[in-house]
Amino acid sequence: MKQVHDRINDMRGNLITVTAEGVTLGELARIDKRDGQSTYASLLRFDGDLATLQVFGGSRGLSTGDKVTFLKHQIEATYSHALLGRRLSGTGVPIDGGPEILGEKVAIGQPSFNPVKRIIPREMVRTNIPMIDVFNCLVKSQKIPIFSVAGEPYNQLLMRIANQTDADVVVIGGMGLTFADYQAFIDNAEESGSLQKSVMFIHRATDPAVECMLAPDMALACAEKFAIEGKNVLVLLTDMTAFADAIKEISITMDQIPSNRGYPGSLYSDLASRYEKAVDIADSGSITIISVTTMPGDDVTHPVPDNTGYITEGQFYLHGGYIDPFGSLSRLKQQVIGKVTREDHGDLANCLIRLYADSKKARERESMGFRLSRWDEKLLGYSTLFEEKLMNLEVNITLEEALDTGWQLLSECFQRHETGIKQKLVDKYWPG
Fold first, then answer.
1. Considering the domain boundaries, does residue 339 fall inside one?
2. Which of 240, 242, 293, 430 could form a disulfide with 176 if both were Cys (CB 3.0 to 4.6 A apart)?
3. Rounded distance, CA 106 to CA 93, Å?
4. Does residue 361 belong to any structural domain of this protein?
5. pLDDT mean across residues, the chain
6. Are residues 325 and 367 in the same domain?
7. 63 three-state secondary structure
8. Does 279 lie in the same domain as 386?
9. How far apart, in whole angstroms, are the C-alpha atoms of residue 237 and residue 16?
10. Whole-number pLDDT of residue 28
């Protein structure tokens, strides 16, 4: 039986406190205002008979005399194929002017998928971005963040991946987006023709913090339902630092004892419970998660990227408009390189990166005024071509074309014997 309470004891920020018994964590409550309108809240904590709830739309307009009704179920997302092509808020309410979504109610924040039903990922997700496909392959069911700083084109990178992926469904969870960023995702999906296979759960910077916490849960709950139906789903989350900041804001309002830099001690679990939704399901679909984690002050030891690094399977570093080949790592790339890709993939990628690292040293010697050797001059020429033809994020070519480009760079700058690649591969793939 639903409990109805006609008095709110206390209000602080987006939190309210009522006296209630027999309620459960995460339980949804409806708040009926005196003006006839309603809003919803979720139970965050109870201490004896005092229950603390966070209000989705903020506590503005509430009064202590408003009625609070506990609904005996947790927050739910609505799952249906009608979600495709739609845009919704962090609470799952349509924000695109379209009709209400009708379908199956799915509880959010559920445990990750049964490990017994998981299989070892062995399929490559193609992006047509050489710095990913060649050097740090994205693998189906991988969870991997893009570490970057404010102002870098990380949202544009996510859009590129969304446009060119062969996934059946793309689910976008936007957190703390400006209006320009939000509109860019819409325009990109419409122009690329990917809108009809995309679902967006958007929290804008002006929306309440609680909706920022709900957006990834809504996105992942629906992604899991698509995957169970046999769909390969790509989930794009931006920005997980905004998500962590929303958690910090709520915890401070609740007077919780802060941990590192004001974040709650639960930060690791809060992040892991979302990332662990990535899965390749036996005899069914998959969920691949790519997120953005902005690093305040470009500090990789900041609590959010620091905790993220322990959870995820590598990272892409986006600095200066490039994916940094030295800071980036895909821990699952060995599952596909040379196994589902061309035989020369591994040796060529290692050679290209080794020579680029040597070119950095040559550039340092040049900047310090040292006399350059003929080998240094070759490295500098190679460095320029490498950045132009492979590192540039505007380059849009398939993996095979990128590998051929790599061989072409080597042939333009070096002799066959200078590369250190196996002779049988050189004989087979060296241009001309």
1. no
2. 242
3. 14
4. yes
5. 90
6. no
7. coil
8. no
9. 29
10. 87
Domain end call among 33, 50, 74:
74
Tens-place pLDDT, residues 4-42: 777 888 888 778 888 888 888 888 888 888 777 888 888
* pLDDT (tens digit per residue) in 231-244: 999 999 998 999 99
pLDDT tens for 197-233 read: 999 999 998 888 888 888 999 999 999 999 999 999 9
Structural domain of 153: 85-334
CA-CA distance, 140 to 167, in Å (whole number)?
Answer: 9
Separation between Cα atoms, residue 5 and residue 69, nearest integer Å: 6
**Residues 109 and 167 occupy one common structural domain:** yes
The whole-model pTM stands at 0.90
Mark which of 74, 103, 134 sits at the end of a domain: 74
Residue 288 banded pLDDT, cuts 50, 70, 90: very high
Q: What is the C-alpha separation between 323 and 132, in angstroms, rounded?
A: 8
| Residue given tokens 């006399």 in the structure block | 371
Largest CA distance in the chain: 84
Looking at residue 387, the DSSP 8-state letter turns out to be: I
The helix/strand count (H/E) of the chain reads as 11, 21
Contact 68, 29 (CB under 8 A): yes
Question: What are 279's two structure tokens?
Answer: 């899965």
| Residues 320 and 275 both lie in one domain | yes
Cβ atoms 413, 147 nearer than 8 A: no
User: Considering only CA atoms, which of 154, 136, 127, 184 is closest in space to residue 319?
Assistant: 154
Same domain flag for 242 and 144: yes
Do residue 288 and residue 349 come from a single domain? Answer: no
What average pLDDT does range 160-181 have in this prediction? Answer: 91
List the CATH number of the domain containing 165.
Answer: 3.40.50.12240
Instruction: State the DSSP code for 281.
Output: B
Q: Which residues of 353-373 are buried (b: 16+ CB within 10 A; e: fewer)?
A: eebbebbeebeeeeeeeeeee
Name the region of 10 (left: φ>0; alpha: ψ -120 to 50; beta: rest).
Answer: beta
Share of the chain above pLDDT 70, in %: 99
Domain count, the chain: 3
Mean pLDDT of 331-358: 94
Q: Is cis: bond before 239, omega within 30 of 0?
A: yes
End-to-end CA distance of the chain: 79
